[in-house]
Amino acid sequence: MSLMSKLSATILLSSLSLFGATNAEVTSFLQKQIGGNKNVSDLKITVSSRAAVKDLKGWDSVIVNLTARVKQGKTERDIEQQMIYFVHGDYITKELNNVKTGRALSTTVSPKFKAEFYTKENLVYGNANAKHKVAIFSDPLCPFCRKFVPESINYMKKYPNDFAVYYYHFPLPALHPAAIALTKAAIAAEQKGLKGKILDMYKVEINARETDEKKIVAAFNKTVGTSLTVADIHTPAVEKQFKHDKSVASKVMVQGTPTMFFDGEKDGSKNKFKEVKVK
């Protein structure tokens, strides 16, 4: 949990009511509560989207953009993030959970996937003007991704007029440190014109905890048939694409893998593409 999430969660546990939960009043409430922390300055909060919560009458999910300068010990840093709140009448809370399933409602909420995020660099299969756009965020060393992502992409790539498949590298370094160098190797290969190497990346056998970039790149080369060097995975172009994918993930609040968006909406089932009647 981020620092601002911790601050806001604590505040809302002690004060869950406000008068009239319009967008302006929500931001005013949060501005006063979070801004009241002496370690927070230059705080700006805006509502980026609001929608009714499905199957929960009277509740809205509200996504807010937050920027601030936060003091931690003797240092200060600027932060920018999005957070989800739930509003009902005069009440606001950071989280709602289903007592029967244990599922946090926040996992079902996501910003819209904007048209500007569909870049030619991220298009790996299909035609850009295909009937449906599918965005996939994945870590190549995520155990579930290793099987699910290649199978899904291999299915969709057979129907280029039905699916435009956009791929975004989202390694999880806390779980799989080796995924950082592995994804950068894949980006380097893509930039050399080897688009199909996205799927080969999932076949690379390497210890997920490996941190030696030479070993990781060597494993990639052996599997994919490339001859990349460590220097190749740290070029400005590779770093730019890596940061771009990470930025898009942050803007649409991706937290785990695999995460999929189908025609601009987060697909919690990850199976909407299977419902399409392909030609």
Would you write up a description of this structure?
By secondary structure, the chain is of the alpha+beta class. The chain folds into two domains: 3-108, no CATH class; 115-275, 3-Layer(aba) Sandwich (Glutaredoxin), CATH 3.40.30. Helix content is 30%, strand content 24%. It contains seven helices and nine strands. A hairpin with a 2-residue loop joins strand 2 (60-72) and strand 3 (75-88). Helix 4 crosses helix 6 and helix 4 (178-191) crosses helix 7 (236-251).
Name the helix and strand elements from N-terminus to C-terminus, one letter apiece: HHEEEEEEHEHHHHEE
Q: Which class do the helix and strand fractions yield?
A: alpha+beta
CA-based gyration radius? 21 Å
Could you tell me the CATH topology label of the largest domain: Glutaredoxin
Major beta sheet, strand line-up: 5-7-6-8-9
Summarize model confidence as the mean pLDDT: 89
- Give the uncertain stretches in residue-range form: 9-20
**What's the number of helices?**
7
Architecture of the largest domain, according to CATH? 3-Layer(aba) Sandwich
- The CATH class of the largest domain is identified as Alpha Beta
Largest sheet: 5 strands, mixed
Helix content: 25-40%
Shape by Cα distribution: globular
- Compute the separation of the termini in Å: 44 Å
